[in-house]
Amino acid sequence: MDIKNNFSLLDEFSADEYAQGFIDQIEKERANLKPDKSMIEYREITVSFDELDEIPHGLFTVVRNGVRLETAYLPQPSSERLLVVLAGAVTRTKNGVQQLAKLPQLNMWSWSKKLNVNYLFIEDPMYYMFHEPQLLQGWYYGTETIDFRKYTADLICRIAEKECFRYSDIVIYGLSAGGTAALAVGKNIPGCSVISNNPTINFWNYRYTPEFESITGIDLEAASRPGERNDVLQNIETSYSKFLLMINGLSAADTGLHLKYVSERFHYECKPGLNAVADNFLVWVYAAPGAANPHTSVPRPSMMKFLLWICKQNWSDIPVEHLSEFFTMLGESYYEYYDLKRDSLFKESQLNKQSSLRDSPLIDKYIIGRFDIRHEGSVENNILFMDISDDQAEIIRPKWFPENAAGYVVNSAKGDISMQLKCVLDGKLTITLKGKLIKDTDGTHLPFYVDFLYFSVDDCVVLDQRTPVSHDNNIQYSKKVSDGDIVTIHARWKPHNVLK
């Protein structure tokens, strides 16, 4: 090759053209990394496990002995690696309110191109088997007679066989309850790698254990004895797979209960940073503040790319001090990302408060529509928000509700709101339309009104003509509900006496 002539071609471009060419190329490459949402559009594809010969692309359902395994497979032809993601709890917390996630959860599906991996997601079958009432954490446990983790491992192996993946090219990732399942599933796929992030390991004192046992009828504490199914640490040292256990040191629940149990079980004092507990077992105690909760601090795609690279390596051939340096650098990135994110969210919330009409005492009393939503029955009654159209609504759990009732007060300045709620346990659901509570200096309630134009609960239209409502002069609607009922609320309102 004539190098001089090759370089002389660059003289045809100005500095600006040359720079713009690089910018265009980078933007094109980044555009190619954007996820294709059509890949996760629902299609009614159901196949028996025994007849699973050709693996569908996108969403499909695998049925085995009546057990429903909701699956998503997104192939990446340029990659030889298979990233398997297992689901955690079915709840999400937004604005302090617990909501049910949409199933299947499809965690991290949009990262497949960025990570250059073939993506496989399998939803926890427990959420479909125990849904009345809804089980919130399942750990892919199964029933007393069927081990769903074994079913999950068998499905992964079947797909790997049909799509020509070696077990050594499989990485299983799970956060929280999904991390618990990943440890157990990985032991059934010899040679794979497991990344388990903040898993539930010690079930004896875990807060959700009583509810899990109540819904499933399984004595989880008895099943957690060494050698039993929920002993997810069993045989790790003698397994042919590799295990990376990630514990957020800033999450007291994860360190005080689960990390302590790991240290006691392996007679190894785990410290902040990387701990080589065995040739195939690393425990990484990192620090990430967490935007909302340190327990749910998920690695970003760039961090996950590094973890996938680590899984490719033979850990026993790399000096521990070198591995530690790698993880120290990643840990710094982890901390900085969540620290910046928390700072950004705080500034954003402060800005919203400064610019929001609801925070002006001169205006908000004229535009706030208030909804007191109460579910009465017993101290165990609860309400879960499945959807709310106003993401700026103020949602609080009042202390003044009776002991046998649970619920929320929703304040919205939007003028139009739709809410979808799920009732936990049988009882009576009461929704009260109010205006904002304004008090005089002596505590007297002042009559500030808003006009409600429409109010419906499910198919029942409660109000369809303009009606003035204040805190004390309110409208109340009640109905009996059963455990698991989904209730839809829709309302519209305007400032009092405004004609349009």
Commentary on this structure:
This protein is an alpha+beta fold. It folds into two domains: 31-347, Alpha/Beta hydrolase fold, catalytic domain (Rossmann fold); 360-495, no CATH class. 27% of the residues lie in helices and 29% in strands. A ten-stranded mixed beta sheet has the order 1-2-3-7-4-8-9-10-12-11, sandwiched between helices. Strands 14, 17, 21, 22, 23 and 25 form a six-stranded antiparallel beta sheet that branches. A five-stranded antiparallel beta sheet has the order 15-16-13-18-24, with no helix packed on it.
Please describe the structure with a list of short key phrases separated by commas or semicolons.
500 residues, alpha+beta, Rossmann fold, six-stranded antiparallel β-sheet, 25 strands, globular
List the helices and strands and how they pair.
Elements: H1 3-8, H2 15-32, E1 46-48, E2 58-64, E3 67-74, E4 82-86, E5 91-94, E6 97-100, H3 112-115, E7 118-122, H4 126-129, H5 148-162, E8 170-175, H6 177-187, E9 193-197, H7 209-216, H8 220-223, E10 242-248, H9 252-266, E11 273-278, E12 281-286, H10 301-312, H11 320-355, H12 364-367, E13 369-376, E14 382-388, E15 394-396, E16 405-412, E17 416-424, E18 427-434, E19 438-439, E20 445-446, E21 450-457, E22 460-463, E23 467-469, E24 475-481, E25 486-495
Parallel strand pairs: 1-2, 4-7, 4-8, 8-9, 9-10, 10-12
Antiparallel strand pairs: 2-3, 3-7, 5-6, 11-12, 13-16, 13-18, 14-17, 15-16, 17-25, 18-24, 19-20, 21-22, 21-23, 21-25
Helix pairs in contact: 5-6
